[in-house]
Amino acid sequence: MSDLQAPFPYFGGKRKAAPLVWQRFGDVKNYVEPFCGSAAMLLAAPPPNGKRVETINDADGFVANFWRSVSFDPDAVAHWADWPVTEADLEARHAWLVQRTDRLRWQLEDPDFYDAKIAGWWVWGVCAWIGSGWCAGTGPHITNGVSIFDRRKLPHMGDAGRGINRKLPHMDAGRGINRKLPHMGNAGRGAFIVDWMRQLGERLRDVRIANGDWMRVIASDSVTTKHGVTGVFLDPPYEKGAMDYAIASVGSGISAKVREWCVANGDNPLFRIALSGHGDEHEIEVPGWTRETWKAGSGYARTAEATANRKSETIWFSPHCVREREFALVSA
């Protein structure tokens, strides 16, 4: 397994489950990840025996743009991401990014388009923001392109008179994207960020990165089985748990549709499918399908619901996944 990771936290990430998934996939010739998020499964993939075609997709334009930008121009992304954690800048950049959500979505329809500034500011903000809501467009602060203002008519009057009660930045040693800085001698923070982005850029050099509906990258055999045995890792937004996804959409109601696709395609010998969910998320009563449970990290959530959910993380595997022996995931 590769040690390379995304430079931002992502609720619902499957990094700990990667060894289990790749054991069951084996050495596939093609890999597709329709809900990539932090791309944890792709980044952890073992080197292939030969060439592997790889395609990732995410409906969130900021996520897709980050991965595209890193693959095309990692140094530019590093430049825009290298900034101290400042609350005023967090508010200003958040409003600026939200105003560009729709435009970014249609610009990404061009497979060669990317915006390194948006990618850098977005990843900087993800690392400085606590919990959900980053670039979701649900907060009170918006911009008209010149000024930033609160769109509410009255200030927030509850919570012991705390005024507008803005979202505080993440205060973990004030490092933002550099929250886990290794010892680098005299190289410094900037060199660390550049090196990280370059490693990601090199890994993603030949990866096809799409932005849109999940079905776009698995509906046609030109993306999947035309290339040979295809591993498909499906991690749709869960139906349960408000804290599972902080960046992508929550509760979008597509989990059942993803399960239907899995059942319809599970008997194809060219597909090795892995479907993620909570223990009671999917009931696949089809011969040959198996399931494995694993324990996710706790993240910021400390509620009883969040604790129960992370202990019930489950992956369902289609009949043609590798099954020479029983696999067990040992959590770090």
Write structural notes for this entry.
With 332 residues, the chain is of the alpha/beta class. The protein folds into two domains: 15-59 and 212-317, Rossmann fold (3-Layer(aba) Sandwich), CATH 3.40.50; 75-201, no CATH class. Helices cover 30% and strands 13% of the residues. The protein has helices spanning 18-25, 40-43, 61-72, 74-81, 87-98, 101-107, 116-128, 188-203, 255-265, 304-311; strands at 30-33, 53-58, 141-143, 148-150, 208-211, 230-234, 271-278, 290-293, 313-317. α9 (255-265) links the parallel β6 and β7. α4 (74-81) packs antiparallel against α8. The two termini are 14 Å apart.
Q: How would you summarize what this structure contains?
A:
30% of the residues lie in helices and 13% in strands.
Secondary-structure map:
Elements: H1 18-25, E1 30-33, H2 40-43, E2 53-58, H3 61-72, H4 74-81, H5 87-98, H6 101-107, H7 116-128, E3 141-143, E4 148-150, H8 188-203, E5 208-211, E6 230-234, H9 255-265, E7 271-278, E8 290-293, H10 304-311, E9 313-317
Helix pairs in contact: 3-4, 3-7, 3-8, 4-7, 4-8, 5-7
Helix content: 25-40%
Percent of residues in beta strands: 5-15%
Q: What structural class is derived from the secondary structure elements?
A: alpha/beta
CATH superfamily of the largest domain: Vaccinia Virus protein VP39
